[in-house]
Amino acid sequence: MKKKKINLGNIIIYIVLISGVFITVFPLAWMILTSLKTQSEAIRIPIQIFPSKWLFSNYIAVFKKIPFAKIYINTIINTVIIVVSQLVICSMAAYAFARIKFPFKEVIFNVLLAVLMIPSSFFILPQYQIVQSLGLLNSLPALFLPNMFSIFGTFLLRQFFMALPNELEDAARIDGCSRFMIFVKIMLPLVRSGLIALGILTLRFAWNDLMWPMIVNTASEKMTLSAGLALLQGQYVTEYPIMMSGAVMAVLPLLISFAIFQKQFIEGIAIQGIKG
Predict the structure, then answer these.
(1) Which domains does the chain have, with CATH numbers?
(2) Could you tell me the CA-to-CA distances from 269 to 62, 154, 191 in Å, in that order?
(3) Contact assessment for residue 108 and residue 96, using Cβ atoms and an 8 Å cutoff
(4) Could you give the CA distance from residue 222 to residue 207 in angstroms, rounded to a whole number?
(5) Is the preceding peptide bond at 46 cis, omega within 30 degrees of 0?
(6) DSSP labels for 22-33?
(7) Taken in order 102, 103, 104, 106, is the CA torsion positive or negative?
């Protein structure tokens, strides 16, 4: 019998992939295990990996320490508004830049792309001054108003619209479709993968945003999850099991969303990369 040759390259690839999976999954697994420990087990040296007793009461304690239910609702409302508004506005803007001829189209689009080169932290002060002048501090609109449009989302969807053949629009015009009907009935269904990819990326951003909610909303009842969980960190002592319990409940919607739409998300990003 012929012995199979060991491919050193494949072994290295498998080692790298397994290491990557471990590095990615280990923090999540450690977070879940810590959420079920006692405080003494969580800070014990040497480290105790598994809890001696599974304490699900830590999850109940989160609701007693902070207004977790209210914070969760705030996060859901904020995220839904941001995701929906970006999908609607970015898709319309992307379609206009990709398929409609108007004066200075390329100049305007290049200026928008140039804004992507500016660090987002530069916009915090002017955005805060605008929100303050509108009297919206410590309110839900302060969270989502600055994030209802995304230049990156416009660029992403523009690549999908540009790849569609012009014959589709020509045939629709012959059949009497208006520009809006062409956009809604023909173009949007064809860029479904791109919309799902943008939706998941926007969901992750809106759900995990920390800096902006901490700046504009200082009242605990108006915070989102990222900022609200920071309230569990004490000045002298931090109850890590309770904090990790809140973190586990915070990441569940993201994990579920990606599990449901992972095929469309990967397809959308891959297609965009090929077209770009």
Answers:
(1) 60-275 (1.10.3720.10)
(2) 36, 14, 12
(3) no
(4) 14
(5) yes
(6) HHHHHHHHHHHH
(7) positive
Contact 269, 197 (CB under 8 A): yes
Tokens (6 digits) for 168: 């589709």
- Asked whether the beta carbons of 212 and 226 are under 8 A apart, the reply is no
For residue 202, give the amino acid letter: T
Q: How far apart are CA 116 and CA 188, in angstroms?
A: 25
pLDDT of residue 168: 86
> Which pLDDT score, from 0 to 100, does residue 266 have?
72
**Neighbouring C-beta atoms of residue 21, cutoff 10 Å:** 10
pTM of the model: 0.84
Instruction: Give average pLDDT by consecutive 10-residue segment, the chain, 276 residues.
Output: 67 90 89 90 86 89 90 93 95 92 90 87 90 91 91 91 88 87 90 88 90 88 88 77 91 84 69 53
Angle subtended at Cα 256 by Cα 252 and Cα 261, rounded to the nearest 5 degrees: 150
pLDDT at 271: 59
User: Using an 8 Å Cβ cutoff, are 60 and 211 in contact?
Assistant: no
Gyration radius of the chain over CA positions: 24
Structure tokens that stand for 175 in this block: 């059949």
Please, are residues 193 and 262 in contact by the beta-carbon 8 Å criterion? Answer: no
